[in-house]
Amino acid sequence: MYNDIERFISFTERDEFDEDQKLESSLYPDSEKGYSLLELCCYHGAVDCFKFLRTKFSSEITQLCLEFSFLGGNQEIMSECLKYQTPEEECMKYAIISHNIDFVAFLMNEYNIEIDLFSCGWYRNLESFLVCFDQTNDVNKCFINSGMFNIPSLCEYFLSNGANINEKDNDGQTALHYTAYNGNIETAELLISYGIKINEKDNEGRTALHFAAYNNRKEIAELLISHGININAKDINGETALHTTAYENRKETAEILISHGIKINEKDNEGRTTLHTTAYENRKETAEILISHGININAKDINGETALHTTAYENRKETAEILISHGIKINEKDNEGRTTLHTTAYENRKETAEILISHGININEKGKTGKTALHIAAYNNSTETAELLISFGANINEKDNEGETALHIAADYNSKATAELLISYGANINEKDNEGRTALHIAILYYRKEIAELLISHGININEKDINGETALHIATQLNSKATAELLISHGANINEKDNEGRTALHIAILYYRKEIAELLISHGININEKDINGETALHIATQLNSKATAELLISHGANI
């Protein structure tokens, strides 16, 4: 942004210009929503463009506008923003980043906002750091953060003025944690020579070695190890420094840790090794290093999942290929009997599924509940993966332990797109589960009207009965689902069909006090005097239930009294 007002005005005069547009870019601080044009003006200090947006479009001054104004450094913009927003801690952070001591002092003096020592260290603003010390005279707090500047004499100054070398901040971190995070080896050596507790943990259970691993500070890692730090120390999640290297693909530090004897197969609280972490984060280089040093490639976590299962969650196909190429058991099952293919089906990870299939995974393998990957795809409406599975020979009519096919599952979970796909590939539309129910029974049972319409349009037997002799119309009546009852009747459902007790839908309507459904059935000509196996008509049932309203309804329509 060059505050080029003429070009900016020309830009806003385009037909496609959107005054409310948001920009998302890695050039700016992380944002889920992106940044407005006015916020970007504040970020860049583009005062003329800022004024134009305010005048022409009445663009809103947000809290972020104020925060960015301290970074952009234009005092006119800042003054305008201060009329609408009140400075908070984030403003101080941006003032520190700008290295403008006047802004820092303004926030401290006018709004009583503390100088953030961590930001001072991270953004190397020594001047603001010293101002904070001058104002607070907090030797211990300043000492903890002083290591971030890599000025050993600064640390020594605080120590000579009574700083506790093992002092911790609110997060439980010592000066050594900060020094390790920033990779300041001279300061680390100084702290160790003064006797700092090298194995001290912060509130998350992390030692300085975890911090060195996270930021790939391999020289610091070597130093800490040479001075006897516990290389296998775990944080509160049960993770060692080796686990930490995997998050950011810190392969160099991983190699150092392994060369110094860290337990390569150590598991965290969830039973996951570092290989699981590399799989989840797709850190294939670190994965290769771990495998080359003998990590157990088939290790399972507490859910019985291997690293290969883990690749499926985020579609980490590259790492999946590495694991397979090194001989991981491709058909290994978790505690529920599910293979990685089941996971890809649930997450709709088509690319990873293709890799698994191409390497010979059993496409029809069942979990403990008898479900194949195709059942799982239907459950989550993972149409792309479902089509892939079918194209590679998945048994489209395979049943689970309940006797349900993928089509039953699609009907149950309202997965219309997958249901259409299954039917188009020849799924047996009239297949029954262990209760004798077709997908239509299931669709009606769970109020899936669109699925029911789809099934009917493809010729499902609308009068099919389950093991109780109930048709879909019996179920719709019991559930008081007038819309689906009308749908079934309009498509030719036999209105007088009886269940195993000899009851028609009208008997059911009266039994469950479904007056509107009863009226609907009568209006479509149901036999009002039909008897069940006990010789009872709907009127008998209404009388037994003392249901005056339904009895009157039946009598008014000619029920034999």
UniProtKB/TrEMBL annotation:
Annotated SMART domains: ANK
Domain DUF3447: 57-132
SUPFAM superfamilies: Ankyrin repeat (SSF48403)
Keyword RNA-binding: no
Superkingdom of the source species: Eukaryota
Pfam families: Ank, Ank_2, Ank_4, DUF3447
Entries under PROSITE patterns matching the protein: ANK_REP_REGION, ANK_REPEAT
Residue stretches spanning the membrane: none
Keywords, comma-separated and alphabetical: ANK repeat
Keyword Cytoplasm: no
Each ANK repeat, start to end: 171-203, 204-236, 237-269, 270-302, 303-335, 336-368, 369-401, 402-434, 435-467, 468-500, 501-533, 534-561
Record-linked PANTHER family: ANKYRIN REPEAT AND SOCS BOX CONTAINING 4, LD18443P
Protein name: Ankyrin repeat protein, putative
Species assigned in the record: Trichomonas vaginalis (strain ATCC PRA-98 / G3)
